[in-house]
Amino acid sequence: MANITLFSIWAFVFSLSFGATDCYFSIPLKIYPGKYNFTTETNLSSVRVVALKSDGEGLSLASDPSGTVNFLDMVNNLHGDSGRGYYIEMSIGTPGQKLNILVDTGSSNFAVAAAPHPFITRYFNTALSSTFQSTGRSVAVKYTQGNWEGVLGTDLLSLPKGPNGTIAINIAAIQLSDGFFLPGINWQGILGLAYPVLARPDSSVEPFFNSVVKQLGIPDIFSLQMCGSGLSASSAVDPPAGSLIMGGAEPTLYRGSIWYTPIVEEWYYQVEVLKLEVGDQSLNLDCKEYNADKAIVDSGTTMLRLPINVFNAVIEAIIRSSRIENFSSGFWDGTKLACWKKDENPMELFPKLSIYLRATNTSQSFRITILPQLYIQPITDTENDLECFRFGMSPSSNGLVIGATVMEGFYVVFDRAQKKLGFALSSCAVSDGEPLSEIGGPFSAADVAADCSGGILKEPVLWVISYALVAVCALILIGLLLLLVLPCKHRDRGEITDESSLVRHRIK
């Protein structure tokens, strides 16, 4: 879209220079980002209460028994899996109606089903809540998969396994949807945790976490552990599969240090990817290709989504480095599963995948690595003696998305206060006692461009430019139409240039 808009600008300049009235412009559509980890038990025997104090870098830690927020109350408050999404239970309205809400760091609206739907068992009945107030404003949101329409309102909300307190929040009551609620899911709404600029219909709709920070006074930080990969799917009750910690980070959920990368732009959680490696092979692409037109961290996206050129390069590198012969191309494009006998170990056939991120010291980078157990994903309920898998990556036409495929290997800290994202080894990213993820660094970033995400126009800028082009082109067109209709004292000269002929032809 950035390229189209750039072309629009040049076309507009050309039209001014030569008087052509065929104005080229592009109205950018919203880019909507479109969901298996083996758990090990964590010793939570020592109950520690969090003081909202800094570790020196703005991160609140569970370390002081005199504090007021218990992070351990939030441990294991997520259920679900990467295939169907991770959700948290909330109590909405007065009296409270308990609903499961999908956790999504790639959007900013808090929305719940407010009408019956064939694929959900519960919905928020606004008529039964004495505190629900409709604003009368309509809202519609479209995602990579599915869309919904509803009406905006406000109500009270509490989290049974979250910060203590009741929060007044903006809520979108979903009346109609298409492809949003799916068979087999166990959630009835979506919790957008991104920034206000992505809120619909506009940024005046304060997102959920902004309201929590403002009203409860907790630090502007949350962290995610997603552990649902490999768990058996159930249409009824899902086992605990992760944690959403609001206000800081819980040390029992990660191992080692937290490595930070700057948040490039506060809309999505946009980061800067410097390079990718498959096994020990670097893809050797221009770093801007990894960030075209953005690179984001999105818990609501199933897979690792890669720009088309990057995706093709990754597939070629995997094929070169793996020990698979005559492997079906349908596996890579998601149309076929790969199956092996249950006593075989196909993970030995595939390489590791590493993503290099810019460090907060911008002259350095660090590397997050996932083993094939995270991107070669098991499909449950297979028959006979076969175990089948799907490929956990897909091509993308609107940017690189670090989704559940990668996030399940790490404890991810969304430090909005310091405008940075942190990655640490997740305590649940372990299989048979072996870790499924790695972190390494620091590495020098001298071999890559100083700004791999530079020159990319963000969505709000695209809207402003596009509407400005529409307005200017319309004015030019009206002016030229008036010139054709109104008498002109120079017409008796009979001069018709190529440019004016072209204009008349196109007007017809």
In terms of topology, how is this protein built?
Layout lengths: L1 H17 L59 E4 L3 E8 L4 E8 L5 E4 L19 E10 L4 E12 L8 E12 L10 E4 L15 H9 L4 E6 L13 E7 L7 E9 L2 E2 L2 E2 L2 E6 L2 E2 L4 H4 L4 E3 L6 E4 H14 L7 H4 L5 E4 L11 E6 L5 E7 L1 H4 E4 L6 E6 L1 E4 L3 E3 L1 H4 L2 E6 L4 E7 L3 E2 L2 E2 L1 E8 L14 H27 L12 H10 L1
Parallel strand pairs: 3-8, 4-7, 16-24, 17-23
Antiparallel strand pairs: 1-2, 1-10, 2-3, 2-6, 4-8, 5-6, 6-7, 9-10, 9-25, 11-26, 12-13, 14-15, 14-19, 17-24, 18-22, 19-20, 20-29, 21-22, 25-26, 27-28
Helix pairs in contact: 1-8
Question: What does the model show?
Answer:
- With 508 residues, the protein is an alpha+beta fold.
- The protein has nine helices and 29 strands.
- A hairpin with an 8-residue loop joins β6 and β7 (167-178).
- α1 (2-18) packs parallel to α8.
- Residues 1-56, 63-67, 232-236 and 487-508 have low confidence and may be disordered.
Oligomer state of the chains in this structure: single chain
Estimate percent helicity: 10-25%
Based on Cα principal axes, name the global outline. globular
User: Which percent range describes the beta-strand content?
Assistant: 25-35%
Overall structural class, as computed from helix and strand content, comes to: alpha+beta
| Largest sheet features | 6 strands, mixed, barrel
Widest beta sheet: strand line-up: 2-3-8-4-7-6
Rg on CA atoms, Å: 26 Å
pLDDT < 50 stretches:
1-56, 63-67, 232-236, 487-508
Count of distinct strands: 29
The residue-averaged pLDDT reads 80
User: What is the count of helical runs?
Assistant: 9
Terminal CA distance: 29 Å
